[in-house]
């Protein structure tokens, strides 16, 4: 049968290329990118005290750019390229058309699409780590931290878990779309880095109100809707499994939000907007390792647990455990990513459906990829317990890796530049660090008026006058 002319292979559309898969994967990658730029930029910039709005947003903005340059320079091949060791690939450039226009290690689209898709995943990981360091990390130290952590920590997790040659991948760990590689890594690395950098100023820790709650919700909404690409792009194909992953993602997240709000209302008397956002993030993180391999009812159970267990660790346990309370984590990345990511990994090992795993992994090996619940039901108990063991082993590996690598990186950076801002910069905030202020209008009608300043961009320094009409002096 003759194919329509638009489906005939040619030099730009080789026989192995699936145009639908390529279109969806590029769309999914763009949705993931939008989670960071502008999603987390807006969320961070509006969720902090107004004097930290620019610095917090700019940490995310810088990280996105720096990661992409490093990614195509050497990091992509360390994460997904030819094996150098059982946990790492050989570094290499991902810029040549002969490499980028060929078929990747998985999928029916060009390697260029895979490089971009995986690149935006790496970007959001670093930005999530930054959430633990807002309001006190020296920006110059952050400039160094991003490429170093990407090179010496992210690559190891990604290769070990996602690359077909990775040791955990060969064992059969299930991490559908980054519960381990992205969220657990970010939660542990952020918490570890926060220990090294130290807390915010005492005044900021006592009172740190968001500067714009409505804008904060807009950033959270971009993060939530962008997760359709985050988990929907996990199968690398526009398949039925991608559809299931998207639906499970939003069902789990909605359940998590409602659970968190219920607990806030029962224990504190009022539903909190910030609490709803934390419940949203916990739900998104928890479902990520399981999105396309569990039933819808299991996604709702996971949402209930992600809305309650991280709530407990954040609202109750954090205050009771001295070590946790001493570490300053402004965005609660440890609870919403390390705790929720670990929870998701364990629940994946329990609820993973063998048939759905076969749709995702395209394998027929019945000794791999079976949740404990189905192992108990089908008389394959040992296989179910084996899967749970692998999931727990992955948590231990990623946790130990990030504690050690992040500590070494922070120690090394501390030899070059201070990890922490000076006391004067901590007191002033954005203007002391960047010479810029976030808002032109605030307070009781005050506005920017007389300009004099910023030597870099000729954006003048600002003095303030009351916005009411002024009468000339006689």
From TrEMBL:
Does the keyword field hold Manganese? no
- In which compartments does the protein localize? Cell membrane
One Gene Ontology cellular component: plasma membrane
Q: Where are the transmembrane segments?
A: 23-45, 57-76, 105-129, 141-160, 180-199, 211-230, 242-263, 284-312, 332-353, 392-417
- Just give the chief location class: membrane
Where is the Ammonium transporter AmtB-like domain positioned along the sequence?
23-438
The record's Gene Ontology biological-process terms are: ammonium transmembrane transport
- What topology does it adopt in the membrane? Multi-pass membrane protein
One matching Pfam family, short form?
Ammonium_transp
InterPro entries referenced in this protein's UniProt entry, alphabetically: Ammonium/urea_transptr (IPR029020), Ammonium_transpt (IPR001905), NH4_transpt_AmtB-like_dom (IPR024041), RhesusRHD (IPR002229)
Q: Name one GO molecular function term.
A: ammonium channel activity
The alphabetized UniProt keywords are: Ammonia transport, Membrane, Transmembrane, Transmembrane helix, Transport
Q: Which SUPFAM superfamilies match?
A: Ammonium transporter
Please report the name of this protein according to its UniProt entry.
Ammonium transporter
Organism of this sequence: Manihot esculenta
């Amino acid at each position: 049968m003759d194919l329509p002319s638009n489906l005939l292979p040619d030099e730009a559309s080789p026989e192995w290329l699936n145009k639908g898969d390529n279109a969806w994967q590029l769309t999914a990658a763009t949705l993931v990118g939008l989670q960071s730029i502008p999603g987390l930029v807006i969320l961070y910039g509006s969720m902090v005290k107004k004097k930290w709005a620019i610095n917090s947003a700019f940490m995310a903005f810088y990280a996105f750019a720096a990661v992409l340059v490093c990614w195509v320079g050497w990091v992509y091949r360390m994460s997904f390229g030819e094996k150098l060791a059982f946990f790492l690939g050989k570094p290499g450039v991902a810029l040549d058309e002969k490499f980028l226009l060929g078929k990747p290690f998985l999928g029916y689209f060009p390697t260029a699409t895979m490089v971009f898709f995986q690149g935006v995943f790496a970007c959001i990981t670093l930005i999530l780590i930054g959430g633990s360091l807002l309001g006190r990390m020296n920006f110059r130290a952050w400039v160094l931290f991003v490429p170093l952590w990407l090179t010496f920590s992210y690559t190891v997790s990604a290769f070990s878990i996602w690359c077909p040659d990775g040791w955990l991948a060969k064992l059969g760990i299930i991490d559908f779309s980054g519960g381990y590689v992205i969220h657990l890594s970010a939660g542990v690395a952020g918490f570890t880095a926060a220990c090294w950098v130290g807390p915010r100023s005492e005044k900021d820790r006592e009172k740190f109100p968001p500067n714009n709650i409505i804008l904060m919700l807009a950033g959270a909404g971009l993060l939530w809707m962008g997760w359709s690409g985050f988990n929907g792009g996990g199968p690398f194909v526009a398949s039925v499994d991608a559809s299931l992953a998207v639906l499970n993602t939003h069902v789990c997240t909605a359940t998590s939000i409602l659970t968190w709000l219920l607990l806030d209302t029962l224990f504190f008397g009022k539903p909190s907007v910030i609490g709803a956002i934390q419940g949203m993030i916990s739900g998104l993180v928890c479902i990520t390792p399981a999105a396309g391999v569990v039933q819808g009812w299991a996604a709702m159970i996971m949402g209930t647990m992600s809305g309650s267990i991280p709530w407990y660790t954040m609202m109750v346990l954090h205050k009771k455990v001295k070590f946790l309370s001493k570490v300053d984590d402004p965005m609660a990345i440890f609870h919403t990513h390390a705790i929720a990511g670990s929870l998701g990994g364990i629940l994946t090992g329990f609820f993973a459906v063998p048939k759905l795993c076969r749709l995702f992994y395209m394998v027929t090996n019945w000794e791999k990829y079976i949740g404990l619940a189905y192992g108990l039901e089908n008389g394959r108990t040992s296989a179910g317990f084996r899967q749970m063991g692998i999931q727990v082993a992955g948590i231990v590996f990623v946790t130990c890796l990030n504690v050690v690598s992040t500590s070494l990186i922070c120690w090394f950076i501390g030899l070059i530049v201070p990890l922490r801002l000076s006391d004067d910069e901590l007191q002033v905030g954005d203007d002391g660090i960047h010479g810029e202020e976030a808002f032109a209008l605030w307070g009781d009608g005050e506005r920017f008026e007389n300009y004099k300043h910023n030597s870099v961009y000729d954006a003048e320094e600002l003095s303030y006058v009351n916005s009411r009409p002024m009468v000339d002096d006689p």
